Amino acid sequence: MRIDVGVAFMALTVATNVCWAQGDARTQNFKTISVVGGVDLPLADSYEGVWDVLPGGYGRASTSFYGGRMHLAIHVYDNDNEGQPVPDFLVVQGEAGWGFALQLPADVEVVGGAHMGAIRFRFRDNEQFEGFLQDETEWTAGLFARLQVPIGRRIAGVSEIQWSHVFTAEPISLTRLQIGLSFAFSSPEWLRGFLQ
Fold first, then answer.
1. How far is CA 121 from CA 75, 76, 97, 100, 172, in A?
2. Is the pTM of this model over 0.85?
């Protein structure tokens, strides 16, 4: 699995370097910022029935960056122990990512790429269960595919499927579906100047 993630990031690096060479792509960097909020729904996990991953919420900010879309995101959701002798826990996952953006007719946008970040597990009532820390933080990496469909001048509907690999001692795999609304606005000149 680590090799697959490594290959994905190598491809991401090559794609970014190709886009870096394109002058047109550089002029679009940070031109607009898109802010998204919505629900984060579980599709699959590798907990083998020990925990039930519950729906949660997410927020993301993205912008044009060298021929694609760069983003920062945060996901928050609960995990229920399903009556098993393990503690419930809250997950807070932060990430940065980049994906190649494909523009379709009617301003529909499809983005596919990779992300990496960290995930924090906040265990509840852990003193009742031997071997569990109160908090645990691990690195994450994965892939995503996103569809954005405009429904107004600055508003769009967004759906995304995201797969994450968590680098715990026993690796965890999480697949989630995100559905939300996006609001786009032009970046202030001072911010574009600072970021560029």
1. 12, 10, 21, 30, 12
2. no
Residue 4 reports pLDDT greater than 80: no
User: Residue 121 corresponds to which tokens in the numbers above?
Assistant: 């597990």
The whole-angstrom separation of Cα 119 and Cα 122 is: 10
Tell me the two tokens of residue 182: 């996006």
End-to-end CA, the chain? 35
Please return the burial class of 141, using the count of CB atoms within 10 Å of its CB with bins 0-12, 13-18 and 19+.
buried
Say what the pLDDT of residue 191 is.
Answer: 64
Residue 130: CB atoms within 10 A of its CB come to: 7
Rounded mean pLDDT, 154-180? 96
- pLDDT at 11 > cutoff 90: no
